[in-house]
């Protein structure tokens, strides 16, 4: 079966384990900078959709043709780092945990969700269009923040974990509304809302990528999903 796995940099570790998909699947990886997937220009072409973007200076522009063949997996919309690492969380926190952080200014879930709604609108529209045109499209969840991320961004772990949880819950609900399934992160990679050191990037300056073992486990989840092809 043809398998197209496309999206942001979280796919690099998955691509290294492509052989885990087995010989019965013909896998194609299309990896580009996350910013190019935020709101790509879409043009109908050859029965599919061509996505273009050039939002990152000195980086390869996005220019890919997606076809409604086999099953497609998109990584990008469940990457929460742009929200969890915002400097605002040094002074603010979600209202639901404010009692544990009385020195921080509470922010309502609704305010955070409005931000997420605006930032993900184009990608949700993109995924909805693929669905409406007959694409068998799924989303790959990005890793939870790495355990070292709060220290790297000077944000309290409980605050970062709660922001991440609110973001993921909201985006997952939106994906469910448009009928897009999600390949969730392996539960064994997560503890206390964070990706553990065992499954984190070996680069100490990297706050959000998984390592090769993490990628292998995610590819196994994709393989299991492919076993349920109708």
From TrEMBL:
<protein>
    <recommendedName>
        <fullName>SGNH/GDSL hydrolase family protein</fullName>
    </recommendedName>
</protein>
């Amino acid at each position: 079966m043809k398998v197209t796995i496309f999206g942001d940099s979280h796919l690099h570790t998955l691509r290294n384990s492509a052989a885990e998909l087995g010989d019965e699947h013909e896998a194609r990886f299309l990896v580009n900078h996350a910013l190019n997937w935020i709101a790509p220009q879409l043009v109908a072409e050859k029965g599919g959709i061509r996505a273009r973007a050039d939002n990152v200076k000195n980086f390869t522009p996005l220019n890919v043709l997606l076809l409604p063949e086999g099953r497609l997996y998109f990584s990008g919309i469940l990457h929460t780092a742009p929200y969890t690492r915002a400097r605002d969380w040094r002074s603010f926190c979600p209202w639901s945990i404010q009692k544990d952080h009385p020195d921080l200014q509470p922010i309502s879930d609704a305010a955070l969700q409005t931000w997420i709604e605006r930032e993900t609108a184009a990608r949700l529209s993109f995924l909805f269009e693929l669905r409406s045109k007959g694409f068998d499209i799924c989303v790959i969840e990005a890793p939870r923040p790495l355990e070292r991320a709060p220290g790297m961004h000077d944000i309290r772990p409980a605050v970062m974990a709660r922001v991440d949880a609110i973001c993921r819950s909201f985006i997952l609900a939106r994906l469910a509304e448009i009928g897009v399934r999600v390949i969730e992160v392996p539960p064994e990679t997560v503890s206390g809302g964070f990706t553990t050191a065992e499954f984190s990037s070996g680069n100490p300056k990297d706050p959000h990528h998984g390592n090769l073992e993490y990628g292998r486990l995610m590819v196994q989840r994709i393989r299991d999903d492919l076993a349920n092809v109708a």
